[in-house]
Amino acid sequence: MCDFIEDQTAEFKEAFQLFDRTHDGKILYSQCGNVMRALGQNPTNAEVLKVQGNPKSDEMNVKMLDFEHFLPMLQIVAKNKDQGTDEDYVEGLPVFDKEGNGVVMGAEIRHILVTLGQKMTEDEVEMGVAGHEDSNDCINNKTFICFNPFPFSHHSP
């Protein structure tokens, strides 16, 4: 697990307290993700729900969470930071499919893979993209998910 140093923990507690509207040392479950994001994490709502034990939606604005229970949740989220899953890539592709026709521009994918997240080298990207662009320099989403050099290569079209 990701262990925080004492100074970090004190900083996290201070931020946690800013979200404590009733000044009783607790926040609502619904605020947990916002506190994590204020502390530099970027969990999805699904990730937050998972570390909370998948509470029911009607519990989110009722159930309370103290700092001692929040910190281990933050540690889990911090440990899993930047570990995208295959599903993350599949869910993210429609954002780049501007016309909704199942293809993305090869140049845009190259730019994203070289500049964002766990950056790849241009050679790594070219090796993966080679042979997958059509005559319009577009890549079929399913093909994109399946090519070998990338971390999401275990899907079949």
Write a brief caption for the model:
With 157 residues, the chain is mainly α.
Give an overview of the whole structure.
The chain is mostly helical. The protein folds into two domains: 74 residues, EF-hand (Recoverin, domain 1), CATH 1.10.238.10; 61 residues, Orthogonal Bundle (Recoverin, domain 1). Helices cover 48% and strands 8% of the residues. The chain contains eight helices and four strands; from the N terminus they run αβααβααβααβα. The strands form two sheets. The chain has a two-stranded antiparallel ribbon. Strands 3-4 form a two-stranded antiparallel ribbon. Helix 6 packs antiparallel against helix 7. The radius of gyration is 20 Å and the shape is elongated.
Describe this protein with a few key phrases:
mainly alpha; Recoverin, domain 1; two-stranded antiparallel ribbon; 8 helices
Secondary structure layout:
Layout: H1 6-18, E1 26-28, H2 32-38, H3 45-51, E2 64-66, H4 67-79, H5 86-96, E3 103-105, H6 106-115, H7 122-129, E4 138-140, H8 141-146
Antiparallel strand pairs: 1-2, 3-4
